Amino acid sequence: xxxxxxxxxxxxxxxxxxxxxxxxxxxxxxxxxxxxxxxxxxxxxxxxxxxxxxxxxxxxxxxxxxxxxxxxxxxxxxxxxxxxxxxxxxxxxxxxxxxxxxxxxxxxxxxxxxxxxxxxxxxxxxxxxxxxxxxxxxxxxxxxxxxxxxxxxxxxxxxxxxxxxxxxxxxxxxxxxxxxxxxxxxxxxxxxxxxxxxxxxxxxxxxxxxxxxxxxxxxxxxxxxxxxxxxxxxxxxxxxxxxxxxxxxxxxxxxxxxxxxxxxxxxxxxxxxxxxxxxxxxxxxxxxxxxxxxxxxxxxxxxxxxxxxxxxxxxxxxxxxxxxxxxxxxxxxxxxxxxxxxxxxxxxxxxxxxxxxxxxxxxxxxxxxxxxxxxxxxxxxxxxxxxxxxxxxxxxxxxxxxxxxxxxxxxxxxxxxxxxxxxxxxxxxxxxxxxxxxxxxxxxxxxxxxxxxxxxxxxxxxxxxxxxxxxxxxxxxxxxxxxxxxxxxxxxxxxxxxxxxxxxxxxxxxxxxxxxxxxxxxxxxxxxxxxxxxxxxxxxxxxxxxxxxxxxxxxxxxxxxxxxx
Length: 565
Fold this sequence. Notes:
Layout (H helix, E strand, L loop, with lengths): L3 H13 L3 H7 L11 E4 L1 H7 L3 H11 L6 E7 L2 E6 L1 H15 L13 E5 L14 H16 L3 E5 L7 H13 L2 H7 L1 H17 L2 H14 L3 H25 L16 H10 L3 E4 L2 E4 L9 E4 L7 H16 L3 E7 L3 H13 L8 E6 L2 E3 L2 E2 L10 H19 L6 H18 L7 E3 L1 H4 L7 H17 L16 H11 L1 H11 L3 H20 L7 H24 L9
Parallel strand pairs: 4-5, 4-9, 9-10, 11-13
Antiparallel strand pairs: 1-3, 2-3, 6-7, 7-8, 11-12
């Protein structure tokens, strides 16, 4: 992979007697292109070399040997400003993109390594709402990013399909529900029953005891309880699959909490044998006081298990089954303490691979600032949101391009892409206040804008009757718009690697906006299909490179790359 920063760092490290990695980390992009393409601040070097930054920068200009990589270097106020050799740089970047096509930016650094990614994990018998969108699309994007970097990924949907809430639902169904209505209305009816249970339980707290009793029956294998639970689960999965199909999200495993029900006793015995379990007010805990954390609850007073028990059991199962190099959990930031606790317990059990457990937290979603509350029915169903996005996109397309073939399919790609991009363009740790107007806004820095830009590159290439560019004269790609576009193209491999290391898909989303903006500036300022065949071919090479990179980037965040919009 061509990396001009590393090439420059390799030249400079011999002059200042530092490692390539040290110099590489110091190099930065100046805020103004007039100050060069790269800059080395010499202030850190001042402490090492015992000279002023101004003197160091001047000496670097004098001592650095000439190279095909740069045209000149300038010393300015303690900075070494580096102006790249445009012709060489453009040739290397474009040739790499055109050679690797949509694999540009990919790597084999993960070859032979397994990554388990736990994401989405909705609760059975509850609606799939916008609160589940973040885990689903962030996890799906991380899966694609790690796979792009050569890893073997295993996507796990750790369904919330066990626990006292099913006791509550059974009580509600038996008191206020009927099979025909549930079969017809499915999750919406299950949600109505769940909400009604909590409304009635506020008046009659004994309902909570009934719910716990029904869950105990489930744990003990009661046929009626398990038959109802399986029915609720099957109905829910059928509904969830509709949303996953719309989002283009898949999983390699749907092993939820119930899957580990018969595997937890062995883990509890292991905790006991290692002297980690303590009794506390009737419950069994692992004391984490010396690690500045509250105790990790393993068993309730009545002997039933908790989330931590199931999570530890699941991690052990996944290590034994998949031999992961990392196991990544994509859940809300509110669960940070929970993960710290059971990660620590897993380490205390002697599992050295506990260090490979990674929690990737994300901010919460509220509705116009109001917290989501399934118990009160305050949710926006994800299927409704996606369908509205598609219908709005179709309206826009009917108005702007009524003769476009296959409008329904493209409206689905663009509308759903708008919703996904709206989420993934935000830093994942940031809280999001959901609003219909923002989620369905297609103007500005949005997913549809990037998709339209990809379609524009396809249109240019189609008009030129050209899909594959042969040789081209890079010296003809010389103006500032073209050069800036190539510089942005060169950043893609670095951005993908950083997104992987930071578990941050928004790095790619923001990059795609930058690339789309740079391309559209070039498109509006420069004529591409000119009569001069050499210039035409050179600019088409640039268009083709942008098409490949936009397509690859969109796929990494789970969006389609339509060729016509």
